[in-house]
Amino acid sequence: MRPPLLHSRKLNRGTLAFVVIVLVMESGVAQSIAEEKPMAEQNGKKPWMFSEANLPAGFPQPGPIDEVVVKDYPAYRLAKVASSGKENGMFMQLFRHIERNEIAMTAPVEMSWHAENGRLEKTPETMAFLYASPTIGRAGGDPKDPQVVVDDMQPITVVSIALRGGYDTSTFDRGYKQLQAWLAGHPEWVATGEPRTMAYNSPFVPGFAKVSEVQITIRRAEAGK
């Protein structure tokens, strides 16, 4: 069976890149490249990764891998859907939204999670596709699918860690625990929300090559006094 993305009538740049990745992996090139850890990643710079779609305007680059950093994000627009119990169902609702509105797909895909006792729940609470610019489209509900809501997000500061591995809770929990430890050792920062994950790769990229980030929104401790 062909992946759902290939049934689209129009292939935007991000979707076309997914198809190219499949062809590269089938040739065996992807695995041989991924086995070599590049110098840029060793030096703590932008990690080697499959760049399948552009970042939204003003977004920081992903990485560095396995290093906790503080990042600032600008205002941005997203289309999100609440959990239906199945991640693939949320993904396809969002994909149909951007397809019928002719909105180019960007990376990452954002997911919000509820955490309890130091672990994330098995399914994200929401999934969101990010618009390339907050000037694209308009905020509000999707007339064709009321479960999809377009929302404008304000600038935020997060503590973040980039990871390699499959997009599952075992990978995300690993990052979340490191963020919790970092916050415990940095009382000058206070968490202000639940964790989120940023997934930069499509299902076509094998788990060992996938890049994601686990993040928690934060503020300076004195800012709330």
Mind explaining what this structure looks like?
With 225 residues, the chain is α+β, with helices and mostly antiparallel strands. The chain has one domain (4-224): Multidrug-efflux Transporter 1 Regulator Bmrr, Chain A (Alpha-Beta Barrel), CATH 3.20.80.10. It has helices at residues 13-26, 29-34, 39-42, 87-100, 169-184; strands spanning 68-73, 76-82, 109-112, 115-116, 119-120, 126-130, 140-142, 145-153, 156-164, 189-191, 196-199, 211-220. Strands 1, 2, 3, 6, 7, 8, 9, 10, 11 and 12 form a ten-stranded antiparallel sheet that branches. A two-stranded antiparallel sheet has the order 4-5. The radius of gyration is 18 Å and the shape is globular. Mean pLDDT is 83; it is low at 1-11 and 13-44.
Q: Quote the beta fraction.
A: 25-35%
The CATH topology turns out to be Multidrug-efflux Transporter 1 Regulator Bmrr, Chain A
Given as residue ranges, the uncertain stretches (5+ residues, pLDDT < 50) are 1-11, 13-44
Mean pLDDT: 83
Structural class: alpha+beta
The coarse silhouette is globular
Fourth CATH level, the homologous superfamily: Regulatory factor, effector binding domain
What percentage of residues falls in helices of 4 or more residues? 10-25%
Number of discrete domains: 1
Q: From the coordinates shown, what is the CATH architecture?
A: Alpha-Beta Barrel
Q: Which CATH top level class fits?
A: Alpha Beta
- How large is the radius of gyration? 18 Å
Report the end-to-end length measured between terminal Cα atoms.
Answer: 57 Å
User: How many strand elements?
Assistant: 12
Reading the helices and strands in chain order gives HHHEEHEEEEEEEHEEE
